[in-house]
Amino acid sequence: MVTFVDRVQVHLQAGRGGNGCVSIRREKFKPLAGPDGGNGGHGGDIVLLADPQVTTLLDYHRRPHRSAENGGYGAGDYRAGTNGAEMTLSVPIGTVVKDDAGETLIDLTEPGTRYVVAHGGIGGLGNHSLASTKRKAPGFALLGTEGWAGSITLELKTIADVALVGYPSAGKSSLIAALSAAKPKIADYPFTTLHPNLGVVQVGDHRFTVADVPGLIEGASEGKGLGLDFLRHVERCSALLHVLDCATLEPGRDPLSDLEVIKAELAAYPVPEGQVPLLDRPQLIALNKVDVPEARELAEFVRPELEAMGYRVFEISAASHAGLRELSFAMAELVETARAEALQDEIDQPRIVLQPKPVNEGGFTVRAEGGSYGTLYRILGTKPERWVAQTDFTNDEAVGYLADRLNKLGIEDGLVKAGAVAGSTVVIGPGSGVIFDWEPTLTSAAEVQMGARGTDLRVEQNKRRTNNERREEYHTLMDAKAEARAELERERKAGMWSEEA
């Protein structure tokens, strides 16, 4: 049965925006008193919250699909739809949020940090909001847009001050149980610890947290054992405590060889950019199980060699609590030094100035794409794509409103520059998008009719008559009338008809 999860993929669906309403107000003696359709409500956002009360991602392992509430539809009498409720997902402190491509979106290291990971859709405008002096009674409304849908990866990296690292069955779980009130599973077989355990150590006026990282073996940085799954829990620790087993009965093992293997694995593990490599952090060595006579002799034998390497070495026993007080004060000293350095780094850091993009930015791009069926022109941009999603294509008036909006944004000028002509295939949005044949919109006689680049159809197809042509046509018409009158006169004189008849 799974009891601890520190990496999980979550599938999110933010709420959809509600559709706007098409309605006409009716009053006494005013059957058509004007549009009164309300706007649709916005869809609910999905927010991640760093919660100190949450310690695992197990809930998201069991229920990986989460959906926020949709926005309500607008109604007549100016009634707006309700906004979808925001969905808050509590995650442990130290959770790293990544997108599908593996890019880090945010690192939730502070309690109470909130991050909107999925934005809800925008509610559509009702016909009351679309009314203007030129469009007094719109017969259409805008549709609500879909909320963000996709997958994210939540990866938990334990936040502790000191990490206990060492071989399986080195006594790390027993040590953290002796130093703190933590109650990890303890047994006499390897890989007893299957997930990191946190304990709070109080020594004098100092308080810090200690993480018991599951046992490492040779090749852990390459995925052997449980190494890759739990080495990332060492990333955030400011100091390391090597717990070396001095009473091991396995052949070919001793504290010095164990230390070299663990150091090699820590050196091979890549830390994120900007962090101190694991082996460059302060380190202490604890020679454990000195309550066993043979282990004490071995500890006294290897201690001078370890101290010659520059380490502070402590002979301890998690069972009898021997040497734990001195070790606790040494760890507290490293933690206080690391905290002071971190505080100074925060003070020395330059102020970060955030300059968000304007919310009304109307940028778009027009890209020509070739294919087996000819060239098509793809339009990409936040506004064009959103406007298309909001359009009810079964309503001709709504389609005309979309064409006006696209024209005002400069879409037609962009298509002309890209080489499009009347009848060209245009796609708005990625993938299949919305496909239509482009027909240019001319709002004045001064605009150039669309044709191939370097051509002007007004010049090539000029049918306007000149003065000479008009004069010749007039004279021809007058001659035809005179000839018709003369013909009638000849018929009358010949007796073919008379005026009395």
From TrEMBL:
Record carries keyword Amino-acid biosynthesis: no
Statement: the UniProt record of this protein carries the keyword Magnesium: yes
Required cofactor names: Mg(2+)
HAMAP family assigned to the protein according to its UniProt record, in alphabetical order: GTPase_Obg (MF_01454)
Main location: cytoplasm
Stated role: An essential GTPase which binds GTP, GDP and possibly (p)ppGpp with moderate affinity, with high nucleotide exchange rates and a fairly low GTP hydrolysis rate. Plays a role in control of the cell cycle, stress response, ribosome biogenesis and in those bacteria that undergo differentiation, in morphogenesis control.
Record's keyword terms, sorted: Cytoplasm, GTP-binding, Hydrolase, Magnesium, Metal-binding, Nucleotide-binding
Top EC class of this enzyme: hydrolase
Localization per record: Cytoplasm
Annotated binding of GTP, by residue: 166-173, 191-195, 212-215, 288-291, 317-319
Domain OCT: 356-440
PANTHER family: DEVELOPMENTALLY REGULATED GTP-BINDING PROTEIN-RELATED, MITOCHONDRIAL RIBOSOME-ASSOCIATED GTPASE 2
UniProt protein name: GTPase Obg
Domain Obg: residue ranges: 2-159
Its EC number(s): 3.6.5.-
Spans through the membrane: none
Binding site for Mg(2+): S173, T193
Pfam families registered for this protein in UniProt: DUF1967, GTP1_OBG, MMR_HSR1
Subunit field text: Monomer.
